[in-house]
């Protein structure tokens, strides 16, 4: 039991215990569980109020991570557009220079 940790479903907030370092899904929601980073022994030692506080803290951190993930995706999209238009600009410069060199002959 020492090698087990507590996991939580981000949708239904139910907690489960599984072996460490697993990627497991909620049996009800069918989405990946989040590792609560707490051993079973430590979880059992918490009072119901402390358990609720731990779950609320995880939910707050998850919200922050989702916000940061959205920002990351937007920045990645912007950088891809910048690269696309940069490449397009370089290609257009090359085409114009070839056309200019060809008309000088």
List keywords for this structure.
105 residues, 2 helices, alpha+beta, rod-shaped
Offer a quick outline of the entry.
This protein has 105 residues and is of the alpha+beta class.
Walk me through what this model shows.
With 105 residues, this protein is an alpha+beta fold. The chain folds into two domains: 1-45; 47-105. The chain contains two helices and three strands. The chain has helices at residues 40-45, 48-103, and strands spanning 4-8, 15-19, 34-39. It has a three-stranded antiparallel β-sheet with strand order 2-1-3. A hairpin with a 6-residue loop joins β1 (4-8) and β2 (15-19). The model has no long low-confidence stretch (mean pLDDT 84).
Oligomeric grouping of the chains: single chain
Order of helices and strands: EEEHH
**Estimated share of beta-strand residues:** 15-25%
For the residues shown, what is the average pLDDT?
A: 84
What is the distance, rounded to the nearest whole angstrom, between the alpha carbons of the first and last residues?
Answer: 83 Å
Low-confidence parts lasting 5 or more residues at pLDDT below 50?
A: none
What structural class should be given to the helix and strand makeup?
A: alpha+beta
Strand line-up in the sheet with most strands: 2-1-3
Number of helices: 2
Fraction of residues in helices? Answer: 55-70%
How many β-strands, per DSSP? 3
What is the C-alpha radius of gyration, as a whole number of Å? Answer: 26 Å
The total number of structural domains is: 2
Shape: rod-shaped
Most strands sheet: 3 strands, antiparallel
């Amino acid at each position: 039991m020492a090698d087990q940790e507590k996991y939580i479903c981000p949708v239904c907030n139910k907690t489960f215990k599984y072996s460490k370092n697993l990627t497991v899904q909620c049996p009800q929601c069918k989405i990946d569980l989040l590792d609560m980073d707490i051993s079973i022994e430590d979880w059992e030692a918490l009072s119901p109020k402390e358990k609720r506080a731990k779950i609320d803290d995880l939910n707050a951190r998850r919200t922050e991570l989702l916000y940061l993930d959205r920002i990351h995706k937007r920045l990645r999209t912007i950088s891809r557009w910048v690269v696309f238009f940069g490449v397009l600009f370089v290609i257009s410069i090359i085409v114009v220079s070839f056309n200019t060199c060809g008309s000088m002959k």
